Amino acid sequence: MIFRQAILLSYCLFFGSYLVIGQTISSKVLDQKTNEPVPFATVQLSENQGIITNEEGRFSLTIDETLKDVDSIYISSMGYEKLAIAISKDTDSIIYLPPKAIELKSVFISNKNLTIDEIMDNVKDRISENYNTELSKKRLFFRESEFNTLKRMNVDFKKSTIKELNKKLIDSVVSLIPRESSYYTEILCDLYGDFDKQKLHITKAAELYDKNKTVSLDAMSKRMETIFKENVKRDSYLKIKSGLFGTKVQVDSILEQTEDAQAVKDEMDKQDKKEDKSKFLKYRKQGLESLMSSLFFNDGVMSNFINKSGRYEFELIDYTYIDDHSVYIIKFEPKRNEDFKGTLYVNTEDFAIVRADYQNAKNLRNFKLFGVQYQDNLYRAKMGFTKGANNKYDLKYMEMYRGGFFGFDRPLKVIEKNKNVKGRRKQNELSLGIDAVNTYKRKYEIVVFDSEKLSEADYENSKENNKIKPQYLSSYDPEFWKGYNIIEPNSAIKQFTASPDSE
């Protein structure tokens, strides 16, 4: 609903009361009582234009010149009063949201004193009518953040019969492996389709990482390749062993690949320039597809607390308000050996889950055998939904973390053998002991600004732009997204700077 009259708050009078076209409002939303940030608060100019605060409560909102009659922004969040604040040139500020008192009488009239089992039965029975699974066009912002930490990397050099492949070189390779690395991608795009088929049209994109680390490793890889070519016979084969396990690799095919690669390098470079663009779109689309299909109401999802609700214990703990609608606050945890725990916020009228916060209650995967260990130990998600014109709910925002670690503590031997050489078949050997542990964390953020229904014909006529290429940034640039509405980056992204000379 579009409100056109400003409600001036006593502590926000300095905002003034007139609109400046092209203005960007940047602010931070805090809880009036606790002074803590309010994440995922809705900051809205009109029914079709707005943004949400990030996990630090920050937002930046660029005012579209078409909104000439709008003179206020409206800020709302679960459990808080809705505020209207006049727009002015003075935009850098802190906005305090007062908690909203719960009117239990109206809530109890609405919920008719249902038991928790009856509430959850209604939630499950109304999934298909509450959530939009039709073809649609979604305008959204998507950010992926990747973090890797090499906790341990010890290489015990034991033996090498190739002079150049010595301890000094191995130590050099190890020293080049980044102990910590970060990689960020951001896109503003239109996502066409449903849960079965999608097309992606990217409007603007950025990559933020340290190129120097990649270039150094590439150079060392080429040096290793040259040493390999000069010292290993063409008709040899490699025996790669780690403890009791081994595999055989033909050298001929490896050498052919390296020799042919040089011959066709120019052609491949041309193709790579084209493919890099299409791969960027492909991987972003795959990421969005995976996240959209992971929504709790879909079939076969890992977060099965709705599909297999009988395996979880639910408890109604309180009531609150989201966008002036009363909601149940329901906590859940596994009864026996299921994976998740969390909190659901269920509309008391239509029994839609309008917000879900949940995380893994135990390790999701844990493999350890013969010195190899893998653990999937982080799955945390927050997501909110909003009702559209067809009275069905669409995703409004999602924040998800996934993470784990991989460990390897085993001996490694690479032995060159050649059956055509007289006498001893073994030609060369490299023997190492490797003890390494790497942890990783991925963060995904989606904000959906608008969603509209599509016909089958509209979907078929929609186009992907596979020529899009992200702009490389060696450090955070606040000017890059100027004029666009996105979810504000957190402090880690703002403070990221690549090493000197990174281009």
Number of separate strands: 21
Helical run tally:
9
Strand content: 35-45%
pLDDT averaged residue by residue: 83
Secondary-structure-based class equals alpha+beta
Portion in helices: 10-25%
Which tags fit this structure?
single chain; 503 residues; alpha+beta; Immunoglobulin-like; 3 domains; disordered N terminus
Would you write up a description of this structure?
This protein folds into three domains: 10-101, Immunoglobulin-like (Sandwich); 139-192 and 200-271 and 364-379 and 391-495, no CATH class; 303-356. It is built from nine helices and 21 strands. The protein has helices at residues 104-111, 116-125, 127-130, 167-176, 211-231, 251-263, 265-293, 456-461, 491-495, and strands at residues 24-31, 42-46, 49-52, 58-62, 72-76, 83-86, 93-97, 136-160, 180-193, 198-208, 237-242, 245-250, 312-322, 325-334, 340-347, 353-360, 365-369, 372-387, 393-417, 426-453, 471-473. Residues 1-21 and 264-275 have low confidence and may be disordered.
Brief summary of the model shown:
With 503 residues, the chain is α+β, with helices and mostly antiparallel strands.
